[in-house]
Design goal:
Layout: E1 2-10, E2 36-37, E3 42-43, E4 51-56, E5 59-63, H1 65-69, E6 78-86, E7 96-104, H2 109-122, E8 124-132, E9 135-144, E10 147-153, H3 175-187, H4 200-230
Antiparallel strand pairs: 1-6, 1-7, 2-3, 4-5, 6-8, 7-10, 8-9, 9-10
Length: 231
């Protein structure tokens, strides 16, 4: 097993997404969530909240930070490589979660560079384990634009089966229909260029926000003018 101390940086930017806050309709101020105990009918201070695992419906066992620190997890600053696989052997998109860029600690610059160059030359992907947010994660590591990219993967027992889905199996498709669909796919075949795709919903929402701001400013200005005339 090879361990390389690293620092993590999210490879994607979620802050650019459009998000909404819940507001009070009267005061236009944000609504805060409170930690409320239903059984005791009282609010619980954040400092008093404890961590629990539900082992059966309605039954919990409390686990403290000290309990979790005793678990056999290695440092969250090191990736523990367990093996190397061919790129095409990597599980499909169903297994992927988050993406992180890896930056080496000063003491690991050489092994980091060696791993980066070796993976690029051999076309292999490293499979490793990594402790992240109190959980052991299965991850893949590959070269990406001169750096190493780590993808967190689902564990096999986290993948749901399609057996319970009501998926049509005996629908008859004629050769002509299949040929027509294949022709359509061929006509629309293209190279994937991410820069050509824009989040049109986000742009529309931001335009709507600008229009609402302008309307609100105009309304406030008109109200101010009317108050001056009235006085």
């Amino acid at each position: 097993m090879v361990a390389i101390p690293v620092r993590l940086y999210l490879a994607t930017e979620s802050s650019s997404k459009v998000s909404f806050n819940l507001l009070c309709p009267e005061h236009r101020s944000r609504i805060k969530n409170k930690r409320y105990c239903v059984e005791g009918d009282h609010e619980v201070a954040w400092g008093d909240v404890v961590r629990g695992y539900e082992y059966e419906k309605g039954s919990y066992v409390e686990l403290t930070d000290e309990d979790l620190e005793k678990l056999p997890l290695r440092s969250s600053k090191a990736i523990d490589i367990t093996g190397f696989i061919k790129d095409d052997e990597l599980p499909g998109a169903l297994y992927y979660q988050s993406a992180y860029y890896l930056e080496p600690e000063k003491s690991a610059e050489k092994p980091y560079a060696l791993l980066n160059k070796t993976l690029a030359k051999t076309g292999r992907v490293a499979i490793a384990k990594f402790a992240l947010r109190d959980r052991e994660r299965l991850v893949s590591v590959r070269p990406q634009d001169g750096a190493l990219l780590m993808n967190t993967l689902h564990w096999p027992d986290e993948i749901r089966s399609t057996e319970d889905l009501d998926v049509p199996e005996d629908v008859k498709v004629s050769p002509a229909e299949l040929k027509m669909a294949e022709n359509l796919v061929g006509m629309m075949a293209t190279e994937f260029e991410p820069s050509e795709y824009k989040d049109e919903y986000k742009q529309a929402v931001l335009q709507l926000v600008e229009e609402a701001k302008t309307k609100r400013a105009s309304s406030a200005s008109a109200s101010k003018t009317m108050r001056k005339k009235a006085s």
